[in-house]
Amino acid sequence: MANPSLLILAGDGIGPEVMAEVKKIIAWMGARRGVTFDVAEDLVGGSAYDKHGTPLHDDTMAKAQAVDAVLLGAVGGPKYDTLDFSVKPERGLLRLRKEMDLFSNLRPAQCFDALADFSSLKKDVVAGLDIVIVRELTSGVYFGEPRGIFTEGNERVGINTQRYTESEIARVARSAFELARKRANKVCSMEKANVMESGILWREVVQDIHDKEYPDVALSHMYADNGAMQLVRWPKQFDVIVTDNLFGDILSDCAAMLTGSLGMLPSASLGAPMANGRPKALYEPVHGSAPDIAGQGKANPIACILSFAMALRYSFDLGEDAARVEKAVEQVLANGLRTADLMGPDGGTPISTSQMGDAIIAALDASL
Ligand code: NAD
Question: Which of 94, 124, 169, 213 is most buried (most C-beta within 10 Å)?
């Protein structure tokens, strides 16, 4: 069988710095676990604009469509702030998501015990937290027509349309049920069926897909406003939450902060299965290019490394190795090793980006 393939798009700012640490883990997987990836690299964002005058070259797009998974660092920076909207670095990322049709955005909120004090919530509420929000990413109110600012009589009116087809709801529901089967087998679907017709349809379709295809998964429904409240009241009641684009945007940011630091948050965006059965997939840290610390060896590489762990689990069915990487991260943090963003009130000496990567590799070695 051919080796699994990866396209690395490290991007701008701290993107290449954190991605350098992921490359160490990729090399470790080949050397110590016998899983060798075919790795290609290319440009995205500002670095692509500098070379090609576009944030994503067509050749890069074609490569992204052909590989098993894309690993992305981060894009953007002050140098590009004045560019025309059509060639801004973020457009490269949006093009990838759109053309790969990545409709299912997985945002885990996992709280490592060693960092439980970083959350704004009480330690016992977040310690050991491990949930995933599945957000529909390609439809809903951010895309629905009609949209715009119009004039009605003597005043202006702003319009956006929440629109979901049954098939759009069904495919993201399936993605959540599949995910739940690899976890604690529980899905909570969130909408506003009490006030929105699109919410009524959402609830019906999710229930229908459950009853016909995933009766073994425990399914519950919740209004999204109650969901927000429950997320900060007792987040450990959830396993997988599935919700639409707008509510998912808000709820996933809320859940992310339960865990404390932006430098810790991975994500996956998945699409339909390819011919080899693997889903179209893009893995990236939630954070941006952090121009304020770029080039200083201060960036925390853990979000990017945990994004690669998600690739191992969701693209390559290597759940055991994904857990091994996550445990190595946990071990390093438990040993008190911290990048600057994770320095708490207890002080300590921060380690650099590459020292963090090396420490995780050492913990991986020790796990064998
Ligand atoms: P940011 O996420 O880059 O940074 C916010 C703050 O968090 C900064 O103080 C930064 O130093 C810190 N931070 C972020 N990641 C960190 C890490 N791994 N380790 C340590 N500290 C970290 O957000 P921003 O400052 O609003 O945006 C900067 C640039 O990134 C902008 O051009 C923005 O458009 C872009 N951006 C890109 C993405 C993406 O590529 N997906 C996401 C968000 C922002």
Answer: 169
Query: Ligand 1 atom closest to Cα of 11?
Result: 40
Q: Report CA(166)–ligand 1 centroid distance (Å).
A: 35
Active site residue 98: no
Is the domain covering 1-106+262-368 a CATH 3.20.20.70 domain? no
Q: Is the CB of 293 under 6 A from ligand 1?
A: yes
**CA separation for the pair 51, 347 (Å, rounded):** 42
Crossing angle of helices 58-66 and 89-99, rounded to 10°: 40
Establish whether 223 is a catalytic residue: no
Q: How many whole angstroms separate alpha carbon 215 and alpha carbon 219?
A: 9
**Which of 58, 117, 216, 253 is the catalytic position?**
253
Q: Is 321 a catalytic residue?
A: no
CATH number for the domain formed by residue range(s) 120-259 = 3.40.718.10
| Domain boundaries for CATH 3.40.718.10 within the chain | 1-106+262-368, 120-259
Pocket test for ligand 1, best of 43, 287, 292 (most atoms within 8 A of CB): 287
- On whether the CB atoms of residues 6 and 73 are closer than 8 A, the answer is no
Q: Render each residue's pLDDT in the chain as its tens digit; 368 residues.
A: 789 999 999 999 999 999 999 999 999 999 999 999 999 999 999 999 999 999 999 999 999 999 999 999 999 999 999 999 889 999 999 899 989 999 999 999 999 888 888 888 899 999 989 999 999 999 999 889 999 999 999 999 999 999 999 999 999 999 999 999 989 999 999 999 999 999 999 999 999 999 999 999 999 999 999 999 999 999 999 999 999 999 999 999 888 888 777 899 999 999 999 999 999 999 999 999 999 999 999 999 999 999 999 999 999 999 999 999 999 999 999 998 999 998 876 666 789 999 999 999 999 999 99
Q: Whose CA is nearest to atom 6 of ligand 1?
A: 290
Dihedral (CA of 219, 225, 229, 231) sign: positive
Cα 347 to the center of its chain, rounded Å: 30
